[in-house]
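I hope you will forgive my troubling you with a question about protein structure. Could you please explain, in whatever detail you think fit, how the structure tokens follow from the sequence? Thank you for your consideration; the sequence and its tokens are set out here.
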Amino acid sequence: MAKARWNGAVIAESDQTQVVDGYTYFPPDAVDRTKVRDSVKESVCAWKGTASYYDVVVGDQVNRDAAWYYPRPKDAAAHIAGWIGFWKGVEIVA
């Protein structure tokens, strides 16, 4: 069972994750939606497509743009459509 943790809180938890480019992606339903909020940030990956971001929020602490997902990935990354990855200090533990 993999968990994504930040500031002592579990943000996501699942036994069905995918690792792509060294990052662990969680299925959308594995993420605690009370601990993420939409961000305006987007970025582009040459082979995955355009990523949208979430801020991770625990209590009054905000980790801006610390989670991302590909809502409409390119064909090569179709298997992670909607799945959520974390960075910027979010710890992934097994």
